[in-house]
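Note to self: user wants both folds in one dump. Writing first protein now.
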Amino acid sequence: MIKKRKIPMRVCIGCQEKKPKKELVRIVRTPNGEVMLDSTGKKAGRGAYICPQEVCLNKAIKARRLERNLQTKISDELVKEITATLKKYHEE
């Protein structure tokens, strides 16, 4: 008998939709306070998942969900950096 593997699901902090973990991008706040995109999904720290779309990122920032989930202030520079990286990620 073949056992079916459970697909891990996560909620996008932008659109609030539940999607498979592999379809989302993880943004992580490392233990030393640095915020970055986590392409592997395994970096140590507090993470938040978001769809690889600029619309979801804007919703998360406007509603302050990203700051709340990562428990840190998000600067405008960091938002621009994450947006640029998401655009590259979406093109692939």
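First done. Writing the second protein, which came from a different request thread.
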Amino acid sequence: MAQRSRKRKTLPTEAVNATIKSLAHDGRGVTHVDGKAVFVDDALPGEEVEFIYTDIRKDYAEAKVVAVLSKAPERVEPACAHYGVCGGCSFQHVEAQAQISLKQGLLLEQFTRIGKVAVSDWWQPLIGPHWGYRRKARMGVKYVAKKERVLVGFRERRQQFLAEIESCKVMHPLVGERLMALSAVIGELTIRDKIPQIEVAIGDSQCVLAIRVLEPPSSEDIEKLRAYAHEHGVSICLQPKGPDTIKPLPGEPEVIPSYALPDQGLAFQFKPAMFTQVNYDINRQMINRVLETMALTKDDVVLDLFCGLGNFTLPLATQAGSVVGVEGDLPLVEHAKMNARLNQITNVEFYAADLSKDIALHPWAQRRYTKVMLDPSRAGASEVLPHLKLWQPELIMYVSCNPSTLARDAGILVHELGYRLVKAGVMDMFPHTGHVESMALFCK
């Protein structure tokens, strides 16, 4: 039987007047029209706005502002000419200090609504640079024949198409202010339509651009990329397949980016596609706060779950008796071991394990730990939390990039495992975006 084609629903074209009541977890304003929640881009609580619908579903609708009739005091003019088109940022219309205050409010709301837990004490938000802070990114690349140019950057807001941008103010200037030059050199290549993305990895003093290539570049292509790299002081690598195939241009040395933690006397090396925090200033402040809060001694045996390349593990080891780091990504585990050797840290062990699966039979999981560090992905740590019954740590430090799963896990720790939420706070790891890094301390 032939399938009936689905017709796209025709959206109302007339503007709707409404007052924004609250803020959604992704930074959109929320109002209600005829009993249905409407999520409105670029709208703030308390504002009266005119909006037009961009999508209507059964249970909710989405919209964008066409006019602000009464402005919230924290509203400012976005600094980037591409704001509203490029989907990389969603908070530039909010004054910088107000952004993090709103995000703290969102975290509180998630703790209350999802976790059913109260926060009695808050850390002061950690604040850093608001522009040029981003040192890791995966940028899209697209050759558009009709425009006879290559687009380099991020997708349009709520679309699959790449935005046509000339610069990015949140990216480190080594890349963010040179998008047009990068676009131009790719546009000169014979394989300009065979490059889907660029992995950006910027260390304290090194910049590596790993270019994904679906076909091998010609010798002329390689020389053009080499000339660009030398002119702009960057290292260009080619990635024909997976991350393990990233290699520098023929004849060029491998540049391994690194970042330092001066307060701990540590340095970390990483490969371009490996996860690191995007904002080094906030990362250093965050680690300092973790160490201050955990108050480690040589009697402490610490378990660091979702440890990555050792970003927390090695600083913890400078103060604790011993630390065990566990991570699901084997290449990251091997790199963590290498970073331990690089820093001459000998009281650490690293293991690879899928922390979303049963880990009970792993020897490291059968030990006792005095304190536990958690830094999971957006999915959170709910699968591993039941093992705390065996480990019986007196203190749990939880760093999260997703307030919703942090709140969910906080509910498990408090209501099922007998811990108390002592303190929480937010960190401005991702200014001008809807994302926020959070931290919570739990004690027995």
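Dump finished. Worth passing along: The mean pLDDT is 95.
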